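This is your field. Have a critical look at the following sequence-structure pair:

***
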Amino acid sequence: MERSRAVVTALIVVLSLFAVSHLYAQGGPEKESAPVRGGGDRLYDPKTVDTVSGEVGDIGIRARGKLYGLHAVLKTEKGEIEVHLGPAWYHDEQRLKIEPGDKIEVRGSRITFEGKPTILAAEVKKGEQVVKLRNDNGTPAWRRRGWR
């Protein structure tokens, strides 16, 4: 009887871990967007919206303070600028692949973050593809609640 209870308990633990890991692998509600909710929304300022274009230098998933997600360095005519593009899983769903060397246009809020110029992207355009990341108030599209 004791052995059966141990086996059932172990099975429940394993299945619970599998379910949680599957949720996060599918871009669950808290995956990568949680840190942005705590920082990115409050940093976005509709009064500082600007459009920049250039060539993608470095791109990858990383954390910069509270801005965790897909970041790129955009090489513009005026120099390099860090661009926060939002959660990588959201970009995967949009099927927009951004790689080093790509020419893109980014519209977003120009801020200074950790002493460096940064753009919190609201829209990214690559060729004819356009992905909307935020509404005019800066609410992220991946949150969907009240998004328009």
